[in-house]
TrEMBL record:
It comes from the Eukaryota. Keywords: Aminoacyl-tRNA synthetase, Ligase. InterPro entries: tRNAsynth_Ia_anticodon-bd. Residues 74-101 are annotated as: Disordered. GO terms for molecular function: aminoacyl-tRNA ligase activity; ATP binding. Residues 74-83 have a biased composition (Low complexity). Residues 90-101 have a biased composition (Basic and acidic residues). This is Cysteinyl-tRNA synthetase 2, mitochondrial. GO terms for biological process: tRNA aminoacylation for protein translation.
Length: 146
């Protein structure tokens, strides 16, 4: 419980905690209010940004493959009777679980890459359909869609 004495301001730690919670909530929804272009020092900043973009895109494609996400075309296929639909859905679920088990090492490699890049200040966040990255430099984050 937080109490406030008459005439004294609330703790800045409390405000920071509230802001972190709200930012985390919006990030979970896929919204970020701090996105901006990366402006690295030196002549190779554009090259580094492009390399990270490509790396994050490649990781995202491998991750989606490893998750065995159903194809959009299969989801849009017309449904036939209820009994046939249940059997088909059960088969698709079993197939997806089997594929995910086979592809588990790929997913673990994606997570490992994310962890290794975080050690260098490059933080990758996986969203529903895409991944974003941010570069922590000098104590502040600079974000890029991946």
């Amino acid at each position: 419980a937080v109490t406030k004495d008459a005439g004294s301001p609330r703790s800045s730690v409390l405000y920071g905690t509230i802001i972190s919670y709200i930012e985390g909530f919006f990030n979970a929804l896929g919204m970020s209010f701090g996105e901006r272009q990366v402006a690295l020092r030196g002549g190779n900043s554009a090259v580094l940004s492009n390399v990270i973009d490509e790396l994050v895109r490649f990781r995202m494609k491998v991750r989606h493959y490893a998750l065995a996400l159903p194809e959009a075309a299969a989801e849009a296929a017309p449904r036939e009777g209820a009994a046939g639909t249940q059997g088909l859905e059960h088969q698709q679920k079993d197939k997806r679980q089997r594929l995910m088990q086979e592809r588990k090492p790929l997913l673990e490699a994606c997570d490992s890459l994310r962890g290794h890049l975080a050690a260098f200040g490059i933080h990758i966040q996986d969203r529903a359909a895409t991944s974003t990255w941010e570069l922590l430099e000098g104590g502040h984050a600079e974000q890029q869609p991946g």
